[in-house]
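Q: Now give one record:
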Amino acid sequence: MEVHRQVDITVPETDAGTRLDKFLAGWISDYSRVQLRRAISNGEVLVDGKTAKPSYRLIPEQKIECQLLAPAVELPTPENIPLDIIYEDEYLVAINKPSAMVVHPAKGHWKGTLVSALSHHFQSLSNVGGPQRPGIIHRLDRDTTGVIVIAKTDLAHKHIASQFEKRTTIKEYLCLTLGIPDRDRDNIDLPIGPHSYQRERMAVRRDHPKARNAQTFYEVQERFRHIALVKAAPKTGRTHQIRVHLTHLGYPILADKLYGGKYPVSAAFLKTGRDIEKDGQEPVLTRQALHAARLTIAHPKDDTPITFDASLPNDFIHALKILRKED
């Protein structure tokens, strides 16, 4: 069979004693740990030229050679997860995605995904994205809430995907920022690429070969003592784009653990900018306060513009009430 992925790694000092399967899972992001265990057991991985067990404990400076075959396709399992349906017709469905929901199965997130919920609730979904991503045209981060459009037919999928590619869709997000932008509105035009040392993050990288142009227009909606309600309209669709751009300006999104936006956020912090020790209260925000509030596309049937609005989630509403001194 044809080799799908070839990787050669020298074990660093810091990974002495690490299990082989766990080590590889940290280096090879597009294979799950289960898939890597299977590959190791099948002899697709050699340690110093010899096969090993998944549980083998590594020694620094050992040479690992991987000649991985294509992993077996793991189809999503339908799950009866409630969905907040904004709009539905024979071509598409618009969903208000909750937080803590991954869009499609990936390493570490095989259950509880939007795809699993869609597979249960809808008999017909597009196949353009492959069997693991039925109906999925675009995505939102796990803890970002709001509008996501799903295609029911292949023609609808291609029509809408073309709009995202040509940047003719209109996307509007609402977020709470830690700190208040010094301008009422502005356009951020800064390229985004991989972070220099944190694999899960992105960053503004002007000279990196993998950096891609990115534009985000933002406008301050409300100002509070130390927090702002901001509307962001990304023209491009780079990974973590709004989060990266606002962090670069010095105004990270509130409760964004990955990008330093004060995590978690208590009611006391919202009111005063300080936490009260041992207040015994549950945090108000435990995920980034970023919500895809509105999306406008051309309908695949006749190109008529159609707009989908997603109501704010409860944690975002609660935070706003505290900031507005309504709660």
